[in-house]
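Final report, closing paragraph on structural work. Over the funding period we assembled a curated collection of sequence-structure pairs, and we close with a single example.
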Amino acid sequence: MCCHFKPKKMKTRTKSLLTLLLVVVSISAYAGGPWLTPKGHGFAQVQAIFPAYQYSGLLMSHFRDVQGVNRYTYNGDYGAYLEYGLTDKLDVMTAVPFKYIKTGDLTDERHFDQLLDEGSLTGLSNYYLGLKYGLIDGDVKVALSLQTRWNTGTIDYEKGLATGYDANSYGLMLHIGRGSDKQYGFLELGYHYMSNDFSDIIEVNLEHGWKVKDAWFIAAVLNVRKSLYNGQYDDTNFAQTGLYPNNQEWIVGGAKISRDLKGGWGLNTALPLVPIYFKQVGFNGAFSLGLYKKF
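Its predicted structure, as stored:
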């Protein structure tokens, strides 16, 4: 690795990678697995992801494979999630994500001939709505969910700016897991159809957690997003900025930490552990924190 970067730059990029993984892992910081909330009860969370700085390149496979962009890019995410029991076997899930993005000064690592104008956008990302139905309620629990994400983002094609994918998605997820008072584990596997000629997506989430103290929980996680490369949507401006291009992928391992508070409240965050693979993902740092309420 030393033959690719100068020591100072390598240190900066390694630090960038570790904090970038926090962004990816935090995507799955919401409630997951086959468990359902009882009728009339639920789980709500607000979450913010604050980038430590603007990125000047995109990861194109492993962390040594970085493609420069023309302008420094800031990418911040904020959102709210709700899961509610319509019946004892059926939950509704929804998330309202917001995003602030900005491109600014020119970088020294440009790999593109076309120079995009700087700009900024604030608005909704892809609104999420889903239903989860319990199939088996034994020692091993199994559920199936229908998940949709809607093209509710704001887009400026000329500047390569987008607050969400320029497509709707419709997916089925299978959830399998089991748990006890001391630990739990689950696997989620799903297929998502993407509209507007975007490639379809395979999604895999694996998580195992432990209760370490009365109110503390830690979990090891693996998140996978794999493109099927069956869509022809192509916009070089989005591929340049890394803001919701087609065929964006990642494989990342990490950890989650949560702390239950009084009255059903709690805090959680996510930490990076194992960087495996990224494609067209901004190479920057961030800090993520969520506040949740069980009711």
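The radius of gyration is 19 Å. Residues 1-29 have pLDDT under 50 and may be disordered. We thank the funder for supporting this effort.
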